[in-house]
Amino acid sequence: MADYNAMELMICVAARNLEDGATVVVGTGAPCAAAMLSQKTHSPNLTIMFEAGGVAPILPSMPISVGDSRTFHKAIMASSMPEIMETCQRGMVDYTFLGGAQIDMYGNINSTMIGKDHQKPKVRFPGSGGANDLASLCWRTMMMTVQDAKRFTDKPDFITSPGYLQGGNSRYEAGLPLGTGPYRIITNMAIMGFDAETKWMTVLSINPGYSRKDVQDNCGFELKWAQKITDTDPPHAEELRILREVVDPHRYIIGR
Predict the structure, then answer these.
(1) Is 197 a catalytic residue?
(2) Active-site choice (51, 83, 86, 173)
(3) What does pLDDT average to over the chain?
(4) Which of 15, 42, 77, 200 could disulfide-link 38, Cβ–Cβ 3.0 to 4.6 Å?
């Protein structure tokens, strides 16, 4: 039996994707935990930025919101939301993390509503906030989420944050910067990227305890598969120690 849970695995995998010297805009929760873990393991020079304006803080503990005073603790700059978004617009932010209720095969994300009537939705979510800006302007967008067929759908009820739109070159042709877009979708079952030409979601590795059938059965559209599917490297002992003892000792995130 694994000595880690799905949230811990997703955070560790996300952390490994943040290389030393990169910049990342994160919110709170799992993305912040991934950035903190990355910084404390293999990327000490990772620059963490928060939407509310904190740039490169030395986080004493897990903040509870992007405006939490801890996101400015010993930061190199206490800026504002427009300055963070301007930094993204200037092409200076490598990564961001987004969440949502639905995602399609091209990485388009719905964080606005469930239902067909915008005025009377079945469920209303927070909406974009800064998500659309980040998805549009950061080089690489990642998402951590539990995988199920309702969430991974070919027909999201609303597109809040653009992925690769209709695939191919459609994102660039719509006016968004060439080379930007969804990068990794990290779920409890698998790690997905996107086909270089079609931009269709493509399985790269399968997490321990799951099969190819599990991954496909819990997706509402047909997935593509990389030529060589690997097994996802599970969390290492040292990663788990730092995550549990330093990053999230009160289990606010990893206890979910």
Answers:
(1) no
(2) 51
(3) 95
(4) 15
